[in-house]
Design a protein that fits this description.
The protein is mostly helical. The protein is built from 14 helices and two strands.
Amino acid sequence: MKDYLPLIEEALDRYSGSFDLPEMFVRSMRYSLLSGGKRIRACLCLACCELVGSRAEDALPFAAALEMIHAYSLIHDDLPAMDDDDMRRGKPSSHKAFGEGNAILAGDGLLTMAMRLLCDVPGQEAAKKAIFQGALEMAAGQSLDLNVTARDRASLQRIHDFKTGALFRAACLSGAFRGGCDAADASRLRTFADKLGLLFQMTDDLLDQEKDEAEDKLTYVTLLGAERTRQEIQALTQDIRALLAGYEGEAATYLLTLTDRISTRKA
C-alpha cells in the first residue's frame, strides 16, 4: 500500500520549525505535533488529491495544516476543563509536560500556524475554505459535547458529525479541491468522508467500551449496544467501498485499505 507518512512527517517537521518564535512556545507545539499518531486526516488529504488526478505532494501544505489543527484540538481536549486526560499517544499530555498555560498557548499557536501556512499558498480558495470550515465545525462539536445533555441518537450523531466528522470532511475536500476535482467528485468524496468519520467514531467507541460505560458516557455502544454497533460498522464499510468503486490507482487502493483497517482496528 502506498505510504504517505514520510511526506507528511518531513513536512510537519519543516513547517513547524520555520518560524522565529520563543523556544518554549515552539518546543511545546512540536511536542504534540511531532508525537506520532496515524496521520489519518493528512493521509486522506493527500490520497484524495491524488485520487482526482494530481500529485499527492501538491496538497502537502493542506495536509500539514490539518495535522496542526488536529494536534491543537487534542491538546485542548486533554485539558482538565475538558476531558482531563494525563496521557496522549503514550506520553504525558501537553498540560502535564508543560503546564496548563503553556498547553493552551501551544494549541492556540498550532491553530494559528495552520492558518499562516495556508496563507502562503496562492489561490486554492475552495481548499482553504474547506479547512477553515472544518476547524470551526470541529470546535463547535467540542462545544456540543460539553453542553448537550440529551441521550438520543440524533444528539450523538450531531456531536460527532462536527467533532469527528468535520476534519474528515476538511481533509477529503481540501485534497480533492487542490487536485482539481469536479462537482461530482466533491459530492462523492464528501459523502465518503462523512461515512468514514462515522465509521472511525463507532470503532473508537467499541475500543473504549469499558471506560465509557464506567464513566456513563454517551457513545454508539452505550446507546445501541456492541452487536448493533458492529453491524452498522459492517454496513458503513460496504457503503464506503461502493462510493470508491469508480476510482482506480494507488490512491483508491489506499483509501479502500484504510477503510478496512479502520473497521477492524484494535487500537
